[in-house]
Write a structure and sequence with these properties.
Distance between the termini: 25 Å
Helix content: 40-55%
Shape: rod-shaped
Mean pLDDT: 83
Radius of gyration: 50 Å
Oligomer: single chain
Number of domains: 2
Number of helices: 14
Number of strands: 14
Strand order of the largest sheet: 2-1-5-4-3
Order of helices and strands: HHEEHHEEEHHEHEEEHHEHHEEHHEHE
Low-confidence stretches: 487-492
Strand content: 15-25%
Structural class: alpha+beta
């Protein structure tokens, strides 16, 4: 029990050091992770603000250009309506030549809201009822009103061109004449390309993968139809369009698990159908931040170093503090457990249920002659040799009670032979004593008193019985053992 005290203390100190250090390190790691998360939130907010600022700027620029462009679109629309009055069969129209003349793209939308004719081949056959239901509803209203509608910034459905569109129905309401003015050729756009500005925001960010500006139908400005589209974009976009509230979702974009934030935007310079847009920010918030990963690796290395250091410190401290405790329960000369340990072990033994113990009390015969004739140093050497022999044959069950008196406590069972054990102990100790010729000449020997009892017995009674047996062994001539056969055990 007490021999393991040093190891117990060592492990307690080691575990304490590791737990404290690990706790501090984990809290520091979690704090860092929280700080990075907060920094990411700020980065997303700044990206949102900068993107909206870019939108405000370009909307303002185009608002200043709008009167001149709108006038051109109005004149071009009237020209085409007159041409329709003269020749209503669009098969006869040369749309490429007309587009070149007007410097605008031309789209003829039938009463099913399908682009039937155009100079832009990839737009022919576009069905607004399929791709853009909300816009299709607006087209129906515009056809019915017969008025000219000029929107602000918008994007082609089948390419990434940013345009300004106008709509006006023919007098017979069979068709809508749609014109598309390419805003990208304007000097203002070339001086301030808001798509480039948004791309710069992405390049500077460590977590943002992409930023898109979505038009009323959910199509991104400056992005080809063949480019990847985030999962559930349209569902999130539609909800934001209906609720006018920001929304964040988990999505998959170009094979990456990301988060997508959708922010509604209403242009203060546009009161047409294009006034509503949505800013889409795709960013990495899955906990795989490179700085966090690096910090975690450093944490593992630090913990490894701390464990090594704790092993060294725990070993030293356990060694220093275990010595006083060790000697409180051990005899300094023989290294056997002392009387304090004997009393505690005997007490604990008799707390066990349904067990039987044997107590051996040993005393050296004529030991005083050794001290008187050969000196105390020789006497101490003999005691040490006796202690070593008892430890080797009893394996921790031997005690030095004081002076030349020793004890052995053994748990016994039905097969345990007290006489055989007693003879073995007596023979072993006498051999140790007789190794020294001068001591052998002094007739030094060992007397042993033995008593046994069940765990329910009073331990003081057991000790007294063994002590009486020792007295009888000495009275009968020494150098022998005596087993007390008294059966009247005092119950606790």
């Amino acid at each position: 029990m007490y021999a393991n005290y040093r190891w117990k203390l060592f492990f307690v100190l080691l575990v304490f050091a590791i737990v404290v250090t690990f706790t501090v390190a984990i809290f520091d790691y979690l704090r860092l992770k929280e700080e990075i998360h907060n920094d990411n939130e700020i980065e997303i907010e700044n990206a949102e603000k900068d993107s909206i600022d870019a939108l405000y700027t370009i909307e303002k620029i185009y608002k200043l250009l709008d009167p001149a462009i709108s006038e051109q679109m109005d004149e071009a629309t009237d020209y085409l309506l007159k041409l329709y009055d003269e020749e209503s069969d669009f098969h006869t129209w040369d749309f490429n030549e007309l587009a070149k003349e007007l410097q605008m793209d031309i789209y003829i939308i039938n009463d099913e809201n399908v682009v039937e004719y155009s100079n832009v081949d990839e737009e022919i056959g576009l069905d607004f009822k399929q791709c853009c239901k909300k816009l299709s509803e607006k087209l129906d209203n515009r056809r019915a009103s017969g008025e000219l509608y000029i929107d602000e910034i918008d994007v082609n459905q089948n390419n990434d061109q940013i345009k300004k569109f106008s709509y006006k129905a023919t007098e017979d309401k069979q068709y809508l004449i749609e014109l598309g003015y390419n805003l990208e050729r304007e000097e203002a756009f070339q001086e301030f390309d808001f798509i480039d500005k948004i791309d710069e925001i992405v390049e500077k960010s460590s977590i943002i993968e992409a930023i898109h500006i979505l038009n009323f139908g959910g199509k991104a400005y400056g992005v080809l139809p063949s480019n990847p589209v985030p999962e559930n974009r349209y569902e999130a976009f539609s909800e934001v369009r209906e609720t006018n509230e920001p929304k964040t979702i988990k999505t998959n974009y170009a094979g990456k698990e990301l988060k997508a934030k959708y922010i509604p935007f209403h242009s203060p310079y546009d009161d047409s159908a294009t006034t509503f847009k949505v800013v889409e920010i795709l960013y990495n918030d899955n906990g795989k931040n490179p700085y966090i990963a690096t910090n975690f690796q450093q944490l593992i290395i630090q913990l490894f170093i701390i464990i090594i250091f704790s092993l060294i410190v725990a070993t030293l401290i356990a060694s220093w503090f275990s010595k006083p405790i060790y000697y409180a329960y051990h005899d300094s000369l023989t290294k056997l457990k002392n009387r304090t340990a004997f009393n505690q072990v005997l007490h604990e033994a008799f707390l066990e249920e349904e067990k039987q113990y044997a107590l051996f009390i040993l005393d050296l015969d004529n030991f005083k002659l050794v001290n008187d004739q050969l000196g105390h140093a020789t006497g101490d050497e003999l005691l040490k040799n006796i202690g070593e022999k008892l430890e080797s044959i009893c394996h921790g069950d031997a005690f030095r009670l004081g002076g030349d008196e020793f004890a052995i406590i053994r748990e016994i069972d039905e097969d345990f032979q007290l006489k055989d054990k007693a003879e073995f102990v007596l023979q072993s100790l006498n051999e140790t004593i007789n190794e020294h010729e001068e001591i052998r000449n002094l007739s030094v020997s060992v007397s042993v008193g033995i008593a046994s009892a069940n765990s329910g017995c009073n331990k003081e009674w057991l000790f007294n019985q063994a002590d009486k047996a020792l007295y009888d062994a000495k009275r009968l001539g020494k150098n022998q053992y005596h087993i007390n056969q008294h059966n009247d055990q005092a119950i606790m």
